[in-house]
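Question (not urgent): is this output format expected?
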Amino acid sequence: MLSSVEALRRLREDMVMDRRKLVDQQESIQNVQTEIEAIDRAIADEEAIQRTTCPKTDIASI
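Got this back:
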């Protein structure tokens, strides 16, 4: 099962490929770009949440 970050990264990759296809077809890419940027922000948010909810344990304190 994919983690939320992995799923978002895969979605972003798909969107980038879609954008490239649109560019090849000379269509507007503004909406696709906006969606990719939103996914980038979601990835950053998920990573920040993971850092705050699952901080790395300090092995020296064990």
